[in-house]
Specification:
263 residues, alpha/beta, Rossmann fold, 2 domains, six-stranded parallel sheet, two-stranded parallel sheet, 8 strands, 13% strand
Length: 263
Amino acid sequence: MVHDVIPLVVQDPAFATAAQRWQRIGPRVRAADVVCTNSKATASDIVRLLAIDPQRIRVAPLGVDPMFHPEPHPEPHPEPPGVPYVLYVGEYGPHKGFAEAFAVIDALADAGLAHRLAMVGRLAPWHEPVVRSRLGRASHPERVDLLGFVDDLPTTYRKAAALIVTSRYEGFCLPALEAMACGTPVIVFDNSALPEVVGDAGVLVKDGDVPAFARAVRDVVTNDARRHELAERGIARARDYTWDRCAAVHVDALLTAAGQSSG
């Protein structure tokens, strides 16, 4: 199973050791009877970068846990809303677009919107200095909350005005799928597996265009009709991604490999 080959795609010194490890792993992957991966984008990358025979590849898109679902019974008299926020879910990495996310929230603040940026995901001690440094260069660092792990991720998705994925490369992007399943609008850069996962159920922004991304977020969070439309599309699309479907592809791959090995 190859989830991604990020160290071979993203040219960054932080990935140098991992890239060398992939060069050693490559021959073993090429020797496999069947190789599973989670997206067509990653399948294309392993063909290109690891010289894997495309006939041996099976694409098994990931599933979404049932706990990620829209709010079933909204409170008839909800409490007054707190400070609105857009959400980012993911552990830091050189490709994850934290600087771009900070720039997006800067643009929202400059436009007069009250939204904060909630960053959910492990912030490893060895990455924290880099993240803090990048945050320190933002125009509105006071608008960013580095939350680490949260106890109730589904509710965190549901209460967000939108999920933003400013990553520059994803092998799949489970947070985008989870957010869609919760009825949260999703805005992503148009790169790697992101358009494959999100499709027309989210907003795709030209890769790396931060001003356009900020405009897209502003349009979503200030337009109730647009937000409702994206929520409905996301919920419908997320229904297609099940762990049963993912498991079925793996079962087929195992049976294929067993047949080839016995033959």
